[in-house]
TrEMBL record:
Keywords: ATP-binding, Kinase, Nucleotide-binding, Serine/threonine-protein kinase, Transferase. This is Serine/threonine-protein kinase PLK1. The keyword rRNA-binding does not apply. InterPro entries: Kinase-like_dom_sf (IPR011009), POLO_box_dom_sf (IPR036947), Prot_kinase_dom (IPR000719), Protein_kinase_ATP_BS (IPR017441), Ser/Thr_kinase_AS (IPR008271). One of its GO terms (cellular component) is nucleus. Belongs to the protein kinase superfamily. GO terms for biological process: mitotic spindle organization. ATP binds at K82. It comes from the Eukaryota. The keyword Kinase applies.
Length: 462
């Protein structure tokens, strides 16, 4: 094998046995990182890659856009300098072995690898829109529909790694979640990845995303990746990492104590807040898995766009109105025709399996029907009415099933009563039912009691 230097002198190189194939490189006048042509001599024919624009760098490598001469395909080339003593040789082998063995729509495609005496080259799929880190730097916080869109793809990729390949990534962060030209996500950089059956207890990862059990070196597993996913979700929705400080020592101290908070005024939905708190908690066993996240209310009960425009890289994209979002959510969830019920204080959508509530603040709640009819009562709350239009009546006749679930009402009463609904109010209340609720709720405060008494005497409640 021959290497040509910048003065066209011939440099001798002896092939070495091992995992990696060998490459021939020509160095440009830019110095040690100025490789402008990379040639893979390992196959039956010579394959050249012409170096293009610089894409970025990590702890041990630099990445460039390259063009393959035969196919003219544009790819990414990760170039790892081999004399970096900070990186042990087996780590390079492990990264290649793991990455070339995985294949998933939300994982960066692995194409080829080879080496020479000074560098190792990993040829990968090019993600043209860079990574979530660049998006976050430009945008700050993203909207919840965008966060759901991104989180679902991340979790599908991570679920594949954990369940199908028995691999823990160990370095999930915004900078390692890449964006394709179609605005889909790809998990990349397997430099710290490890097969679970060969797991080693080491402090690895990126400080802002590293789990406390990793910092403490008490042993960790796939739930360390789930902590990282929680930090990713927090960063997307808030605009900065949860444990970011001015010093590494202070950041690690906050991580070990799980010392973070969701800023006031962030306007996160209850579902988003709950999921973040479930993921970023000290006890790994209580963190949900990737599969469980995909079934969480934050994902299943909220609007997720089918795709995102490139505009999302720099600003919030336009989304359907709250009512249209509700229709899309319910249609996707139940696959039934969505019909609109009379509007009370909020918007309701019904299928034969469930009712979806679209609140004015843009949040949603789905109530699935059960065989037992129940109602949760509280003054001034809306009621979900389920039935068909009675053409023989001047008003629409519905059977009352549920009202909104609220913190201030702890009593569920089974009923099967007919009510007449006229737009915004139920005009035929059951006095006995209201009295029963009043007697049951002894801890009700005085204002609530006055409201109930007033509703009882007026003969109407909403």
């Amino acid at each position: 094998m021959l290497l040509k230097g910048e003065n066209n002198s011939i440099l001798k190189s002896t092939p070495k046995p091992g995992l990696f194939r060998l490459a021939w490189t020509r160095e440009g006048i830019e110095g040690e990182n100025g490789i402008y042509e990379i040639v893979d001599l390992s196959g039956s024919c010579e394959v050249k890659y012409f170096r293009g624009r610089y894409l970025g760098k990590g702890g041990y490598a630099k990445c460039y856009e390259v063009t393959q001469d035969i196919s003219n395909k544009v790819l990414a080339c990760k170039i790892v300098r081999k004399n970096l003593h900070l990186r042990e040789p087996y780590q390079e082998n492990r990264e290649v072995m793991i990455h070339q063995s995985v294949k998933h729509p939300y994982v960066v495609d692995f194409h080829s690898y080879f080496e020479d005496d000074r560098f190792m080259y990993i040829i990968l799929e090019l993600c043209e829109k860079q990574s979530l880190l660049q998006l976050s730097n430009k945008r700050g916080a993203v909207t919840e529909p965008e966060a759901r869109y991104f989180l679902r793809q991340i979790c599908e990729g991570v679920m594949y790694l954990h369940e199908d390949e028995n691999v823990i990534h160990q370095d999930l962060k915004l900078g390692n979640i890449f964006i394709t030209s179609g605005m889909n996500l790809k998990i990349g950089d397997f430099g710290l990845a490890m097969e679970l059956d060969r797991f080693e207890c080491k402090q690895v990862g990126t400080p802002n995303y590293i789990a406390p059990e990793v910092v403490k070196r008490t042993g960790h597993g796939i739930k360390a990746d789930m902590w990282s996913i929680g930090c990713i979700l927090y960063t997307l929705l808030i605009g900065k990492p949860p444990f970011e400080t001015g010093s590494l020592k202070q950041t690690l101290t906050k991580i070990k104590a799980c010392d973070f908070e969701i800023p006031k005024g962030s306007n996160l939905s209850p579902e988003a807040t709950r999921l973040i708190l479930q993921l970023i908690q000290l006890d790994p066993s209580k963190r949900p898995t990737a599969r469980e996240i995909l079934m969480d209310d934050f994902i299943t009960q909220g609007f997720i766009p089918d795709s995102l425009p490139a505009l999302s890289l720099t600003e919030a994209p336009p989304f359907p109105s709250a009512e249209d979002q509700a229709r899309l959510v319910l249609a996707r969830k139940c696959a039934y025709t969505v019909s609109r019920l009379p509007k009370l204080y909020t918007t309701w959508f019904q299928t034969s399996r469930s009712v979806l509530l679209a609140f004015p603040n843009g949040t949603f709640q789905t109530i699935n029907f059960s065989t037992q009819r129940k109602i949760l009562l509280r003054p001034a709350m809306d009621a979900v009415a389920v039935s068909v239009l009675d053409s023989g009546q001047p008003k629409r006749s519905y059977k009352l099933d549920y009202t909104s679930i609220t913190r201030k009402c702890a009593h569920v009463i089974t009923i099967d009563l007919e009510y007449s609904v006229n737009n915004a109010e139920i005009v035929k209340p059951d006095r006995k039912l209201v009295k029963q609720l009043l007697s049951m709720k002894a801890e009700m405060n005085s204002l609530e009691k006055k409201i109930l008494f007033k509703l009882l005497w007026l003969g109407t409640f909403c």
